[in-house]
Amino acid sequence: MTxxxxxxxxxxxxxSELQGYRVDLGDPTAASIPTHITLLPPIDVDEVLxxxxxxxxxxxxxxxxxxxxxxxxxxxFRPVSPVVFINVVQGISSCExxxxxxxxGPLAIDAQFPYHPHxxxxxxxxxxxxxxxxxxxxxxxxxxxxDQISLYEHRDDRGWMPVRAFRLGGSxxxxxxxxxxx
Length: 182
Known about the structure:
The protein is of the alpha+beta class. The protein has one domain: Cyclic phosphodiesterase (Cyclic Phosphodiesterase, Chain: A, Alpha-Beta Complex), CATH 3.90.1140.10. It has helices at 14-25, 50-62, 92-102, 127-136, and strands at residues 2-9, 36-45, 67-76, 83-90, 118-123, 141-146, 148-155, 159-167, 177-179. The strands form two sheets. It has a five-stranded antiparallel sheet, with helices on one face. A hairpin with a 3-residue loop joins strand 7 and strand 8.
């Protein structure tokens, strides 16, 4: 079995900035979690399914146009879940449609919570640290174009690693799947 997830990577400089903040805040898992917007939360899959998962993600990506995402301000899932996040304020419906498409076929899952696109910046920390992240990152603001989604695998020794990227919206002639350095 392999643990996988599918996400939109937050590009640098913002991705590194938010990950560094999370590490500095004391989140013990932050260094092994690239900054992202989750499309498919972690699931365990049989390795024999990986080729069909790749084909599924390639088809989903090809059928999805690139879109602009705007991240701004903070939110929280407390008291339901001890999470502070950066809000997705533009691109919400595009993320929802993309997540729904990803969660079909070989990746069909029953979700524990309703889908809410966001970027986690503090998770399972003391209340005062969650409060600090909520306040410190309230002025955060960035925009970027989402032009690919990534398949991640969890590796015990290195955490979450991107293993394949799938370009959004390509025609059959120019649609490519890129290998991501591991």
